[in-house]
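Researcher: Next entry in the queue.
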Amino acid sequence: GDIPQEKVYANFGKLISEIVRMVSKTSDQRDKKGETVYLNDLVKRKDTIGLIAQIVKIADRIHNLRTLRHNSPEFQRKIVFSTIDNFVPLFISRINVDKIKNKYMRDLFIRTIRMFNHQMLRTLNELNFLDEIGTIYPEQRKQYEWEEKCRLNPKVLRLAEQKNIAEAK
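Model: Structure for this entry, 169 residues:
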């Protein structure tokens, strides 16, 4: 569950508390529009705390991709396409390592982004998202888009469930 910010602060201090706050999404940042604002705000931070939070965010996504095989195919598609559609263009591609003045921080970003790219490709292969030439199967995208419509519109979900029940008879 969620740990209150005050408890993080009391146990780990101001720096860790601020990083945890920055990398934690609020409930209104869990949809596509909210995630866009959240990632934009995070990538704009150029101070040391902001850069550390960005590294932590990338590490978190690497972990999510590594452990994705333990989840349902629907959840796998959600994370994969969220990463492709939001995380990469709104966050990863906007990190300009050449502008990071601290050499050690710049090197850390380079290594972390390499790890992210490697893990993304590995996950896509392991979960059978890629065809033999490295293109994402269009069926995976279509299924994800259908699942998103169902998630966003309970009426569509009910109709889909009724159709499945009718086809089963």
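Model: The CA atoms of residues 65 and 120 lie 7 Å apart.
Researcher: Noted, moving on.
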